[in-house]
């Protein structure tokens, strides 16, 4: 489905994340399996996003979280997914988000392996690490370490308790982290010297 999202955005020039996800979903109907999906499109200073499942993102401004997507679950530890043998579709079931961005805003996007194992407050602390690649690596490392610990209160353990499921510690899972920083738009062309 990721390839088809790329086709939608680049070749078909579909700019709305929901429409791009729906296109990818329709083009992937013959592929066996299912997936969660979180797609963010940045256009000038506008963030638009479509999310289905338990991947998530946060937007940070002045060291405060100003937008946090929420996970979608059928029941505890069973996220919404699109694909074969699923009745869900992007058009019908995706959560939509829109936000005006400002220079120096950060966007942190990740799979459930990130958000299940690391509190967003720990992500805020990582913003001071400099470049986005360093921030992403630091956040991924923290989530991985937490996923292996047995006696730590993670977001997943807290949610398990809320659902009367006995669980302690982290949750081993894949961990993917993307970090972007909003910068001032540069004027195209070569600056002229006086």
What count of helical segments does DSSP give?
A: 7
Domains, number? 1
What is the first-to-last residue Cα distance? 51 Å
Q: Determine and state the CATH class.
A: Alpha Beta
Structural class: alpha+beta
Major sheet size, sense and barrel closure: 4 strands, antiparallel
Mean pLDDT, to the nearest integer, reads: 93
CATH topology: Phosphatase 2c, domain 1
Chain oligomer state:
single chain
Order of helices and strands: HHEEEEEEEEHEEHHHHE
Task: Provide the β-strand percentage band.
Answer: 25-35%
GO molecular function, one term: protein serine/threonine phosphatase activity
Cofactor: Mn(2+); Mg(2+)
Keywords: Hydrolase, Magnesium, Manganese, Metal-binding, Protein phosphatase
Protein name: Protein phosphatase
Keywords for this structure?
four-stranded antiparallel sheet; alpha+beta; Phosphatase 2c, domain 1; 194 residues
Short description:
With 194 residues, this protein is of the alpha+beta class. It is built from 7 helices and 11 strands.
Write the layout of secondary structure elements.
Blueprint: H1 2-11, H2 17-27, E1 34-35, E2 37-43, E3 46-52, E4 56-61, E5 64-68, E6 73-75, E7 78-79, E8 82-83, H3 90-93, E9 95-100, E10 106-110, H4 112-115, H5 120-126, H6 132-148, H7 155-162, E11 177-181
Antiparallel strand pairs: 1-8, 2-3, 3-9, 4-5, 4-10, 6-7, 10-11
Helix pairs in contact: 1-2
Enzyme class: hydrolase
InterPro entries: PPM-type-like_dom_sf, PPM-type_phosphatase-like_dom, PPTC7
Keywords: Hydrolase, Magnesium, Manganese, Metal-binding, Protein phosphatase
């Amino acid at each position: 489905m990721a390839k088809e999202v790329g086709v939608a955005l680049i070749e078909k020039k579909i700019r709305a994340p929901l429409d791009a996800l729906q296109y990818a979903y329709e083009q992937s109907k013959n592929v066996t399996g299912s997936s969660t999906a979180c797609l963010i499109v940045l256009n000038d200073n506008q963030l638009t996003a479509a999310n289905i499942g338990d991947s998530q993102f946060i937007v940070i401004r002045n060291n405060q979280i100003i937008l946090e997507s929420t996970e979608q679950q059928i029941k505890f530890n069973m996220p919404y997914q699109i694909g074969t043998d699923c009745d869900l579709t992007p058009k019908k079931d995706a959560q939509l988000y829109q936000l005006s961005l400002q220079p120096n805003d950060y966007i942190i996007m990740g799979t459930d392996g990130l958000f299940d194992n690391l509190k967003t407050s720990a992500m805020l602390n990582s913003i001071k690490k400099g470049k986005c690649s360093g921030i992403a690596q630091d956040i991924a490392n923290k989530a991985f370490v937490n996923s292996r610990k047995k006696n730590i209160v993670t977001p997943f353990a807290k949610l398990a308790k809320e659902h009367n499921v006995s669980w302690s510690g982290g949750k081993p899972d894949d961990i993917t982290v993307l970090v972007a920083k909003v910068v001032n738009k540069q004027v195209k062309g070569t600056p002229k010297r006086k």
